[in-house]
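dumping this here so i dont lose it
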């Protein structure tokens, strides 16, 4: 198969508040090999038009974007790492020419940080018989319906809350997150389901204007808080703990949910005396192997986790690998550590759309090195260079 620049597309935010972020200049240098499509709030048209979704990430909770593509009946290629591998349906068979690449019923698993393996997986999927490709897409949709539909997530929350509160009517539940975007895009259906149960909801989130306002207009009370996701300033972090403590004391909630690293740590500390659950949506940048300084930082974060999670009723993980890592470091008691099987996706919203000629391989993510963006670009280069060489050989 002849690959061109138009077969490789990137979609997602640049300049993210993350030490791993890529900038416009980084992608401009690769513009001969890749199409950067910018950031879009509704990704369904892009997924419908692509041949398959690719996410060669180094570590995840359970990637929502994979579930969205799978729900739209697309095969996927992703890394054989925590979270990502949950999205590939067994049995797994090794690829003949590279046994590190595993073929599942709905896609392929590749080793992380291996652009050559990624290129081989893309080529395999692009050249497979159309009936096999279509069958993979059908299996993707089937897996999401059976395991990851948002209805299963809502049921898990409601069942857990009723075990702690018995009746949900008129109960006050607080959600703490480091972004309004995350609450709106990943948990709006959950929030609406709880509201329909008679729950009073308060969201403590940074005011980003757009999603903060959208949550307010959806009928939820929103309180602004400054959470510096990248910062290492201990005085700012102490201020965050104190702010949360004062808010909880004033609000007197019946239950608190804390999401993502800093809210989980500082929110759990401030939640002492209140029923609360910490939800780790992924272990994050710190838990990806790195150098000496990152090792020191990881040890410090582990100390904070261990101290904070003593105050929780439960700690939820999105996959068993993350849970096992916390247990191995003795950060949480095994009796508290539960599995939330992904944060769910609406299979009615992300439904299959028939396209006569879907084309290209699409990566949707924040433009971070840890999402495998550079590996995807390198794989695109390998395949395009190979196509050029094959064309030259045929002409000769």
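and the seq i came up w/
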């Amino acid at each position: 198969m002849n690959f061109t620049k138009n077969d490789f597309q990137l979609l997602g935010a640049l300049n993210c508040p993350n030490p791993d972020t890529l900038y416009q200049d980084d992608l401009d240098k690769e513009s001969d090999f890749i199409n950067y499509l910018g950031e879009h709030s509704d990704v369904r048209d892009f997924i419908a038009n692509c041949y398959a979704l690719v996410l060669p990430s180094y570590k995840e909770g359970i990637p929502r974007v994979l579930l969205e593509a799978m729900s739209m009946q697309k095969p996927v290629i992703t890394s054989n790492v925590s979270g990502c591998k949950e999205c590939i349906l067994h049995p797994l068979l090794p690829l003949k020419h590279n046994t590190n690449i595993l073929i599942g019923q709905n896609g392929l698993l590749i080793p992380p940080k291996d652009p050559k393996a990624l290129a081989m997986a893309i080529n395999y999927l692009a050249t497979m018989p159309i009936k096999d490709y279509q069958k993979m897409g059908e299996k993707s949709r089937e897996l999401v319906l059976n395991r990851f539909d948002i209805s299963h997530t809502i049921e898990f929350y409601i069942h857990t809350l009723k075990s702690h509160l018995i009746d949900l009517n008129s109960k006050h539940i607080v959600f703490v997150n480091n972004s309004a975007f995350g609450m709106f895009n990943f948990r709006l259906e959950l929030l609406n389901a709880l509201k329909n149960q008679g729950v009073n909801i308060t969201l403590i989130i940074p005011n980003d204007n757009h999603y903060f306002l959208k949550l307010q207009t959806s009928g939820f009370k929103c309180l602004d808080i400054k959470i510096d996701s990248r910062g290492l300033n201990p005085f700012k972090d102490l201020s965050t703990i104190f702010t949360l403590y004062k808010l909880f004391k004033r609000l007197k909630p019946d239950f608190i949910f804390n999401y993502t690293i800093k809210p989980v740590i500082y929110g759990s500390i401030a939640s002492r005396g209140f029923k609360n659950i910490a939800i780790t949506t992924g272990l994050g940048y710190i838990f990806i192997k790195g150098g000496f300084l990152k090792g020191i930082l990881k040890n410090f974060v582990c100390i904070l986790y261990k101290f904070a999670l003593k105050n929780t009723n439960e700690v939820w993980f999105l996959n068993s690998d993350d849970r096992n890592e916390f247990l191995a470091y003795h950060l949480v008691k095994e009796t508290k550590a539960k599995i939330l099987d992904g944060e769910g996706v609406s299979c009615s919203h992300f439904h299959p759309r028939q396209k006569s000629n879907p084309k290209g391989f699409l990566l949707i993510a924040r433009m971070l090195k840890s999402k495998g963006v550079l590996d995807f670009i390198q794989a695109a280069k390998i395949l395009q260079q190979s196509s050029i060489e094959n064309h030259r050989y045929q002409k000769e």
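The chain has two domains: 5-147+353-395, 150-339.
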